Amino acid sequence: MRDESRTVMKIPVILIKTASLLVAAAVVFSSFPERRKIEIKPGESVSQIARALQEEEIVCSSLFFMFFLRISDRSTNIKAGTYKFYPRQSYFSIINQLVKGSDIYERVSIPEGFTAEQIAQRLKRKKIIDSKEEFVAFVEEKDLRGMLFPDTYRFSKGQNVKTVAGIMKRRFDEVFTEEFKDRAREIGFSVREVVTLASLIEREAGVSEEKPIISDVFHRRLERGIFLESCASVIFALGEHRNRLTYQDLRVDSPYNTYRNLGLPPTPICNPGEESLRAALYPAETDYMYFFSRGDGTHVFSRTYEEHLEEQRKHTFPGP
């Protein structure tokens, strides 16, 4: 009986010790300091970075930090971005983090049909890039119009435009599979031509189910040497959105005006999504040659020009 009583008496002691340890751990974790955020902008000097770290009490001395940074010979490897550090974090761990790059990411969604300029504006607003003009210039230089794939991305702030555009182009390469490339060759299109046609479809179509039909109209017109007459291309040529085009607008002098220039525009007019790329490659089988917008995102399709005119007369939206 004595042995059993000893055993029984030991249990509360063990429980008490365990509970004490858990309470102690809870106290430690609850008092653990929160990380503090700093933003390092492109082109900031070592002294500016060191002062920012000291102001947030991440380092005790900006001078000591600059000393450690210089003896590590890594001052030129610091990457711009947004970082979080613990107060009094070791200098070498801070330096390693600054050289490795930001671990804080900004979520940004790029809708289907955005132009390079619209993408640049959104990235700038999110502080992911520093210059809209630099981003668009890089896209132009590398001929990436239409290939900045619309998707949701996670970028760190203060990225260089080459990195951001490269990530979006790699996503396009993932989507434009070997199947797509084989199909492009089968119909006699280059990848660039497929993307350009898909960009017209993206901007013309208001509903998904009409994309292959619009694609078929454009394919038929290309095959027969007829003007594509895409209102979306005219809007791109004008450089500003119009709810309704005038006949004067249709005469705008631009290589992107498909009412005056045969064939596809010289480059994509936006960045199409996978659905529009697929529609460009796999058009529906119809005998339509004309279409016009009802004004609600859907279109009226016609086989002949006479039928097209008659349908326009029936609707309250008689635009070109």
What attributes does this structure have?
two-stranded antiparallel ribbon; 13 helices; Dna Ligase, domain 1; 320 residues; mainly alpha; 8% strand
Shape: elongated
Report the sheet with the most strands, covering strand number, pairing sense and barrel closure. Answer: 2 strands, antiparallel
Helical content band = 40-55%
Taking strands numbered 1, 2, ... along the chain, how are they ordered across the largest sheet?
A: 1-2
Q: SS-based structural class?
A: mainly alpha
Which ranges are low-confidence, i.e. pLDDT below 50, for 5 or more consecutive residues?
1-11, 13-31
Q: How many strands in all? A: 6
Rg, alpha carbons: 30 Å
Number of domains: 3
Distance between the termini: 102 Å
Succession of helices and strands: HEHHEHEHHEHHHHHHEEH
Portion in beta strands: 5-15%
Number of helices: 13
Mean pLDDT comes to 87
Describe this structure in words.
The strands form three sheets. This protein has a two-stranded antiparallel sheet with strand order 1-2. It has a two-stranded antiparallel sheet with strand order 3-4. It folds into three domains: 36-100, Endolytic murein transglycosylase (Dna Ligase, domain 1, 2-Layer Sandwich); 106-175, Endolytic murein transglycosylase (Dna Ligase, domain 1, 2-Layer Sandwich), CATH 3.30.1490; 187-314, no CATH class. By secondary structure, it is mainly alpha-helical. Helix 9 (191-204) crosses helix 10 (211-224), helix 9 crosses helix 12 and helix 10 (211-224) packs across helix 12 (274-281). It is elongated and about 80 Å long. It has helices at 2-30, 46-55, 62-71, 91-100, 116-125, 132-141, 161-175, 178-186, 191-204, 211-224, 231-238, 274-281, 305-314, and strands spanning 36-40, 81-85, 106-109, 152-155, 290-293, 299-302. It is built from 13 helices and six strands. 30% of the residues are buried.
